[in-house]
Write a structure and sequence with these properties.
With 447 residues, this protein is an all-alpha fold. It has a domain of 193 residues. The chain is built from 20 helices and two strands. Strands 1-2 form a two-stranded antiparallel sheet. Helix 5 packs antiparallel against helix 7 and helix 15 runs antiparallel to helix 20. The protein is globular and about 70 Å long. The chain starts with a helix and ends in a 12-residue tail after the last helix.
Length: 447
């Protein structure tokens, strides 16, 4: 509760060096939130707020990525004096809304913060986006998510009317009879699948990523996609959706969509678009692991949300650094960066192998757990798994080789330079991916 009041106080303050204060607040509180990783299995309650191991992982990710958003935007916003205080206010507001969503036990407030998180995101895209197409991207984002979320609101109201409560624990521990058709329950889950996003409902994601500023891309890939995964886990566990007749269909759509988006990534020429489509494949695999109902699938899905949030955010940071140097995101105009900056080339290589799930990063652990759960569910899915692993390696190698190898272009040789803040930004993405390999056993107490 003190953390929430501190966030509200920082939102209302008007002092000098407010940008730096907000940045250090989020970075310091990300370390304070590490203590919640060791909470008891039943979690901690404080009025309407509830935090357990699942919530604590995503709260930690939210604080960390929000702080890195401000660090990544320092050059484009702070140095250029581009509505600096308003930008930091929007980032802090979005961080607070997302954290409240992860900690809510009331279904109505759960839905409220799920929807309110859209507004600061759209303001980031419209206020600090690069091109006029950002208006269409913001419209796509609003229409897709709001349209899919309305059935969720109706379902929550129907559940509360039948059972006289909005609290999730009333359904989780008392096993109250819902007396609702499975169609309504499936429609409620649809809101989280679109936010994930489910393949065939994913068109808003590449548009929003391409037109968003670096902070918008980081929060979309790092945090907002995790709202859908978190909602799926909470609803499947709270309402005991263990015998859904449509879970096989959703699993096939997610996994086959992951294969198709992996092939789409191979043919992409825009760096940000390639990274955005790779997110759809990773989140589809995560959803498939959840619907297997195996414990290793749930643990792998939770770990995938954390590792993908850092890895995808780091890739967007690297692509933005490249864009600031040569004013282009085309793979055809990049090449020979290995001859110009070997240190940044190493960072690109580590992020690419992390994205493909190679050691020594925790992405490998999450993918192994998901592959085990999918194989236990059906041995036929092994074919889809092998295709996804192979094509995932292909498009990550294409991304790395296209940027780093070949002849360097003469038009950016004299202007390409890095500074210590860029190195720090990439290292702060890589550091948790390596350190969390030391202990991933706390996930066994999630459920």
């Amino acid at each position: 509760m003190g953390m929430i009041f501190s966030l509200i106080l920082l939102l209302l303050m008007k002092v000098n060096n407010l940008w730096e204060m907000r940045f250090w607040f989020m970075m310091i509180f990300s370390f304070f939130s590490l203590k919640y990783l060791s909470v008891e299995e039943w979690g901690l309650y404080n009025y309407y707020l509830y935090i357990d191991i699942l919530s604590s992982i995503l709260v930690l990710l939210s604080f960390w990525v929000s702080g890195l958003m401000m660090l990544a935007s320092y050059r484009s916003v702070k140095e250029n004096n581009n509505k600096t205080m308003f930008f930091s206010f929007i980032v802090l507001l979005l961080c607070m809304v997302i954290i409240l969503f992860f900690m809510m036990t009331s279904l109505l407030l759960f839905y409220l913060f799920f929807e309110v998180s859209l507004l600061p995101t759209v303001m980031l895209i419209l206020g600090w986006g690069y091109q006029p197409e950002r208006l269409r991207a913001g419209l796509y984002l609003m229409l897709y998510t709001v349209f899919a979320s309305l059935p969720l609101l109706l379902g929550i109201l129907m559940i509360s009317e039948k059972n006289g409560s909005y609290m999730m624990d009333m359904f989780k521990y008392n096993k109250i009879n819902l007396n609702m058709s499975m169609i309504w329950l499936s429609v409620m889950l649809f809101a989280f699948l679109v936010k994930l996003p489910l393949y065939s409902m994913h068109l808003w994601l590449p548009k929003a990523h391409v037109e968003a500023p670096i902070a918008g891309s980081m929060v979309l890939a790092g945090i907002l996609l995790k709202l859908g995964g978190y909602g799926l886990i909470r609803f499947l566990y709270t309402f005991s959706f263990m015998n859904l007749y449509f879970d096989e269909l959703i699993m096939v759509i997610c996994l086959w969509g992951g294969v198709l988006t992996s092939f789409i990534c191979v043919g992409q020429s825009d760096i940000k678009s390639l990274i955005a489509y790779s997110s759809i494949g990773h989140m589809g695999m995560m959803a498939g692991g959840l619907f297997t109902k195996f414990m290793c699938g749930w643990e792998g899905g939770i770990l995938m949300m954390f590792s993908h949030g850092l890895c995808s955010s780091g890739l967007f940071c690297l692509s933005n650094m490249l864009y600031e140097k040569i004013n282009s995101r085309s793979l055809f105009l990049c090449g020979g960066m290995l001859n110009i900056s070997s240190t940044m080339s190493l960072f690109w290589f580590m992020m690419c192998i992390s994205n493909m799930g190679a050691p020594p990063f925790i992405n490998m652990v999450s993918e192994v757990l998901l592959f085990i759960s999918l194989y236990l569910y059906s041995q036929i899915l092994l074919i889809i798994i092998l295709i996804m692993v192979f094509v995932g390696g292909v498009y990550n190698l294409v991304l790395y080789v296209s940027i780093q190898c070949g002849n360097d272009m003469s038009f950016y040789n004299v202007i390409y330079s890095e500074n210590s803040s860029e190195y720090l930004l990439v290292l702060l993405h890589l550091f948790p991916l390596l350190v969390f390999m030391l202990n991933v056993g706390y996930l066994s107490g999630v459920m």
